[in-house]
Amino acid sequence: MGMFLLPVMAVLLPTSIVLGVLMLPTLAAGFVGRGRARMLAATVGMLNFAGCVPPLVELWGLGHTLAATGEVLGEPLMWFGPYLAAAFGWMIFLTIPPLVHRYYETVTNNRLSALRKHQDRLREEWGDEVAGDEAAADDTSADKAGEASAAA
C-alpha cells in the first residue's frame, strides 16, 4: 500500500500538504483514543475530511501549485472549516454513545418492569408454584408438610 501512496503523494504534493496539515485533528484522534481509537478516528476523520473539501477545491481552482498551497494555508478561514468539522466529530463521539446507552437502559428497565408486573399477575392467578422460584416452591412444600403433620 505504501508503495502505491508515495508516488501518488509526490504527484499530488500540494493536495498532500494541504490534507496533511488540515487532517491533524484526525491524527490526534488516532493517538488519543486508546481502545476505541478506530471509532474515534473514523468519526473525527470523516467529518474532518468533509471540512477539507472547500480548501481542496480552492487549491485546485488556483492551479494546484505549491504557491497555491501557501495561499490556501495562509487564509485563516480555510483552517476554520476542517477544524470545526473535526470538533463536531469529537462532540458526536463524546455525546452520542452515552445517550444511546441511557436510551437502551431505559427501554430495558421498562421492559423488565412490564415483565415483573406480568409475572405478578400470573402468580396471583396461578399461584407461586408456577413462578419457577425455588424459594417459593420450598415455602409451599414446607407449608404442605406443616399442614400434613397438623392433620395427623
From TrEMBL:
Region of interest (Disordered), residue spans: 126-152
UniProt keywords, alphabetically: Membrane, Transmembrane, Transmembrane helix
Membrane-traversing stretches: 6-32, 39-57, 77-96
Highest rank taxon of the organism: Bacteria
Amino acid composition bias (Acidic residues), ranges on this chain: 126-137
Keyword Membrane: yes
This protein's name: Uncharacterized protein
Organism the protein comes from: Ferruginivarius sediminum
Organism lineage: Bacteria, Pseudomonadati, Pseudomonadota, Alphaproteobacteria, Rhodospirillales
